[in-house]
Amino acid sequence: QVTLKESGPALVKPTQTLTLTCTLSGFSLLTSGVRVSWIRQPPGKALEWLARIDWDGDEFYNTSLKTRVTISKDTSKNQVVLRMTNVDPVDTGTYYCAFGSAGGWSNFWGQGTLVTVSS
Amino acid sequence: DIVMTQSPDSLAVSLGERATINCRSSQSLLSSSNNKNYLAWYQQKPGLPPKLLIYWASTRESGVPDRFSGSGSGTDFTLTISSLQAEDVAVYYCQQYYTAPPHTFGQGTKLEIK
Predict the structure, then answer these.
(1) Does residue B50 sit in helix, strand or coil?
(2) What count of CB pairs under 8 Å joins A to B?
């Protein structure tokens, strides 16, 4: 059974760096075809695709956020980490990690973690 | 980046009636190599993560009721719910996954009961 769980701080101050962890179970990050994405959603607004890391280590980023966002994986812990630098209140929202193994869609999602950026 | 535009932004349909949601991409999502359209549809209910409904524009994910169907090709796509049920109240998103990421989403369509 594939499950994903996001964790990280609920509150971050402006200009700080946000670090979120996605812990995966039911599959290995080393399995060919595995792709893990981060998607966020400001309160009451639409989904925004942020980044993806693939089983072979390839990384992909949202064009407008690529200077602030880094995605990485720890295969020993079966975790994917998202780092976002210099956060602003507009970065407030629910952050989801999601899994896909074919094509570019995501068929398993975590429950999401709400992050508030405020001083 | 490919821009995805959904219409309408919100929609109210009576129970048992058909609901139609449209999605347009700023460039074609049809691959000439495999004749597939690189488009997915998701359903999101309040307080929950999105749920995959359809991929390859028209392939239903396992377990999704057959009242949900996807159609279209190139730049214009449609999600149809043939007979609206109360549990279908949600926000629906399209997502393109043509070529390498970023894999952008539409702005969402809120579906309610009339």
Answers:
(1) coil
(2) 65
Tokens linked to A17: 């760096």
Chain A hits for B103, Cβ within 8 Å: 37, 49, 52, 104
CA Rg value for chain A: 13
Residue with tokens 């043939």: B82
B93/A46 Cβ within 8 A: yes
pLDDT digits (tens, 9 = 90+) for A74-95: 999 999 999 999 999 999 999 9
Return the number of other C-beta atoms located less than 10 Å from residue A26's C-beta.
11
pLDDT-derived band at A103 (thresholds 50, 70, 90) equals confident
Handedness of CA A44, A49, A55, A60 (dihedral sign): negative
Q: In 10 A of CB B54, how many CB atoms?
A: 23
- How much is the CA Rg of chain B, to the nearest whole Å? 13
Nearest-CA neighbor of B44 among A80, A90, A46?
A46
